[in-house]
């Protein structure tokens, strides 16, 4: 809580107390609860040294010239703890003393402009990054920012900083201020410079927060047992992992060479290109490869070899969908595993909401402990995370989220399915990517089958595969014929009849809405149909995908009806796919689930997979998906006028499509660039929302419902949370949560099916039974209520 010195008298009293008592006291940063022997407490000198050492190390890894910033940040971040009242607080007195702003105020008194990044970082290392001058968000967000601005914090702490600066024996106060880095002294427009200061501030803030938390964690853990001051989990080196990974991939390659095919030739071509280009200097790269072209292995091979060549620290794989992270992470674990180990559970760290932490802890407690430690700051050789986690790390104001940012520097980042970034954030995201690449030793790989039109925003982008247009025309990339049925709507009854009579016992239909998926599936034979949508909790979806894959592999009848959850990354191989009209990238992803291995095409001598694009009787949920479908329709019409056909597999057609799509959108809809240039960090965080979840509410489902009446895992975990709501029991709920519209949640509350805890999550009551959650369709409502379930 902040001290507000409301009158001259209170200020004078504080000054006197500090000046009189300060010279006589020994100052501590941390006490040990219940320990009266102060010789075991951590002194300010010790804490400052530990934080400064780490902070210097983190920043020097990015640029040696930044080391002096780490020194001053570490030495000054806790100057407010020299207040006698804070020292009394450590002895157990119930005092509320704000300490984080004093160092910022001291920096401002020494150099008001030059030290602005340092002021933000120090003042916010507990509360978070603030706005600079005002909290006015121009009514762009529903909840106003309430945190004090930087200017307010400096005023509140000015007197404390002045007196602390007079305390005898504080050599740390004599530190020279660091030089501004060269690129921040260049002559350019002020907004551009300020956005660079925005990133620079975030990096300093991240390094300070990580250093402070590691030092504090070490002190408390070492007070109980012998702990290395490194506070670092040991991982194998990138060189060891590279050798193991490339060896595994080469063994697969040798095995496949005995049965040559066009698809294997395509994958070899991509892999060879990635290994060849890995010795390039850092920058932004594009890996444009048709679906099924082996991006998962090839991108990782590039990243590992590129990181080693350029002395980078880690590889970060960013995936847009939690539904495919498990699959990709397990592919990597298998490749990184030591001989006869099966899966590498040590070197790959997954960070996303779909992790079943409870199951992981039960299966391998040591590996889960490593993961929990590493997700705090991404100090690991290989990170697999979601777009939400990654981009919110870049634009957040919160210490725990920003803590990881300095680890993104000096790394290779694979942005998988780059075309999925929300259009309203294209300009802020590309600007941030460009800055990380040019100033912070971050190599970026834009991985996609359908390249978006981003080069004008990113500057120089180097192609890893020299001829992506030629690659798209490779015989293995031409496995699918596209039939367009978009002049008139197709009803779901008509589609159901075709699925039953098209001559294929295995087919896939992808629709826009959850309600559409459920309604269409119900029209199909019970023993042949499979349903997949976000009405099902993550654990349920995993089992459904596994069952679909099993049926396809074993040649059993499988009429799968899904929302777009199935599209990206799921190694499904169907003879025919029906896709509701959507954006070009979605259509190409749908086609990637069709004749994926090219076996039917090889057998017939022509593209044997079939993608049928139909106009559904319902519209996509949300304006963005509707605009994407409209842009595809525009491209189809334009190409028809030219006497050709819209080819969603052609990179040039895809770029043209994205130009039409982006042309309908505001690429900085929430004016983040303006707020960044104003150094309004809290505003930026409030306005940046990768998942627009204001419409939804999380509901825990008690699935499965066991036939013997015993509680299923979802019920057991919800009861554990009800009895003891804490971080661990909360995380354990994630695999059993369904996001529902708030209107639907209200129905569940009215019916007594859920009770709301803490205003933020619905926990099932005893009335939540199988009539509300189906083993086949997930969360179910009456027909009239199904309209709520969009997306």
Summarize the structure.
The protein is of the alpha/beta class. Helices cover 46% and strands 13% of the residues. One of its GO terms (biological process) is defense response to virus.
Describe, in plain words, how this protein is organized in 3D.
By secondary structure, the chain is of the alpha/beta class. The protein has four domains: 8-222, Hypothetical protein af1432; 238-471, P-loop containing nucleotide triphosphate hydrolases (Rossmann fold, 3-Layer(aba) Sandwich), CATH 3.40.50.300; 479-648, P-loop containing nucleotide triphosphate hydrolases (Rossmann fold); 696-788, no CATH class. Helix content is 46%, strand content 13%. The protein contains 32 helices and 21 strands. The strands form six sheets. A seven-stranded parallel beta sheet has the order 5-6-4-7-8-3-9, sandwiched between helices. A six-stranded parallel beta sheet has the order 10-15-14-11-13-12, sandwiched between helices. A hairpin with a 3-residue loop joins strand 20 and strand 21. It is globular. The two termini are 42 Å apart. The relative contact order is 0.09. Mean pLDDT is 89; it is low at 1-9 and 783-791.
Instruction: List low-confidence stretches.
Output: 1-9, 783-791
Distance between the termini: 42 Å
**Proportion in helices:** 40-55%
- Main sheet characteristics: 7 strands, parallel
Total of helices: 32
Shape: globular
Count structural domains.
4
Radius of gyration: 28 Å
So, CATH architecture of the largest domain? 3-Layer(aba) Sandwich
């Amino acid at each position: 809580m902040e001290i507000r010195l409301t009158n001259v008298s209170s200020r004078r009293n504080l000054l006197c107390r500090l000046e009189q008592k300060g010279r006589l006291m020994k100052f501590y940063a941390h006490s040990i609860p219940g320990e009266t022997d102060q010789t075991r407490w951590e002194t300010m000198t010790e804490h400052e040294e530990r934080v400064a050492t780490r902070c210097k190390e983190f920043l020097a890894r990015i640029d040696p010239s930044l080391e002096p910033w780490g020194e001053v940040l570490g030495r000054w971040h806790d100057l407010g703890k020299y207040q006698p009242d804070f020292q009394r607080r450590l002895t157990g007195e119930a005092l509320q003393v704000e300490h984080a702003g004093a160092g910022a105020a001291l920096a401002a008194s020494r150099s008001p402009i030059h030290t602005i990044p340092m002021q933000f970082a120090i003042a916010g290392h507990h509360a978070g990054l603030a706005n600079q001058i005002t909290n006015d968000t121009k009514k762009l967000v529903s909840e106003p920012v309430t945190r004090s601005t930087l200017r307010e914090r400096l005023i509140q702490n000015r007197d404390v900083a002045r007196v602390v600066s007079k305390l005898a024996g504080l050599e740390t106060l004599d530190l020279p201020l660091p030089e501004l880095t060269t690129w921040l002294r260049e002559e350019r427009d002020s907004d551009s410079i300020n956005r660079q200061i925005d990133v620079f501030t975030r990096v300093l803030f991240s390094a300070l927060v990580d250093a402070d938390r590691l030092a504090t964690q070490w002190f408390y853990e070492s007070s109980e047992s012998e702990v290395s001051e490194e506070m670092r989990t040991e991982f194998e080196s990138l060189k060891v992992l590279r050798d193991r990974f490339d060896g595994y991939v080469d063994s697969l390659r040798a095995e496949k060479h005995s049965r040559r095919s066009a698809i294997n030739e395509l994958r070899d071509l991509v892999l060879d290109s990635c290994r060849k280009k890995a010795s390039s200097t850092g920058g932004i790269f594009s890996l444009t490869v048709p679906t099924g072209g082996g991006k998962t292995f090839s991108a990782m091979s590039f990243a590992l070899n590129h990181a080693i060549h350029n002395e980078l620290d880690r590889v970060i794989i960013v995936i847009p969908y939690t539904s495919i992270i498990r699959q990709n992470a397990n592919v990597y674990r298998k490749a990184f595993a030591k001989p006869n180990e099966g899966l590498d559970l040590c070197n790959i760290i997954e960070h996303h909401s779909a992790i079943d932490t409870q199951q992981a802890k039960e299966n391998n407690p040591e590996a889960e402990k490593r993961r929990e430690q590493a997700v705090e700051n991404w100090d690991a050789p290989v990170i697999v995370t979601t777009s939400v986690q990654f981009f919110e790390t870049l634009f957040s104001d919160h210490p725990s989220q920003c803590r990881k940012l300095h680890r993104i520097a000096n790394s290779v980042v694979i942005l998988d399915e780059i075309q999925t970034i929300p259009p309203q954030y294209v300009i802020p995201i590309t600007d941030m990517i460009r800055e990380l690449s040019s100033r912070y030793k971050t190599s970026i790989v834009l991985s996609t089958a359908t390249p978006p039109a981003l080069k004008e925003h990113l500057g120089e982008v180097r192609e890893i595969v020299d001829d992506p247009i030629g690659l798209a025309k490779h015989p293995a990339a031409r496995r699918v014929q596209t039939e367009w049925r978009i002049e008139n709507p197709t009803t779901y009854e008509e589609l159901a009849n075709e699925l039953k009579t098209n001559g294929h016992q295995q087919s896939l239909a992808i629709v826009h809405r959850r309600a559409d998926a459920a309604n269409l599936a119900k029209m199909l034979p019970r023993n042949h149909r499979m349903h997949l949508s976000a009405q099902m909790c993550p654990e349920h979806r995993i089992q459904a995908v596994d069952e679909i894959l099993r049926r396809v592999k074993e040649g059993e009848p499988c009429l799968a009806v899904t929302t777009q959850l199935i599209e990206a990354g799921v190694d499904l191989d169907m003879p025919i796919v029906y896709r509701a009209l959507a954006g070009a990238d979605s259509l190409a992803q749908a086609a990637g689930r069709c004749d994926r291995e090219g076996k039917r095409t090889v057998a017939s001598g022509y593209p044997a997979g079939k993608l049928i694009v139909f106009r559904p009787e319902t519209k996509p949920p949300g304006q963005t998906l509707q605009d994407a479908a409209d842009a595809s329709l525009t491209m189809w019409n334009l190409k028809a006028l030219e006497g050709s056909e819209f080819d969603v597999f052609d990179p040039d057609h895809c770029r043209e499509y994205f130009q039409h799509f982006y042309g309908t959108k505001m690429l900085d809809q929430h004016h983040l660039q303006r707020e960044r240039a104003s150094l309004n960090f809290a505003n930026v965080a409030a306005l940046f929302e990768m998942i627009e979840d204001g419409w939804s509410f999380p509901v825990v489902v008690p699935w499965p419902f066991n036939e013997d009446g015993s509680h299923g895992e979802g019920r057991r975990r919800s009861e554990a949370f009800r009895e003891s709501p804490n971080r661990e029991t909360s995380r354990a709920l994630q695999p059993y949560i369904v996001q529902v519209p708030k209107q639907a949640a209200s129905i569940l509350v009215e019916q007594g099916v859920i009770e709301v805890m803490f205003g933020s999550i619905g926990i099932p009551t005893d009335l939540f039974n199988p009539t509300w959650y189906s083993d086949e369709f997930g969360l179910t409502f009456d027909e009239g209520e199904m309209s709520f379930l969009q997306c």
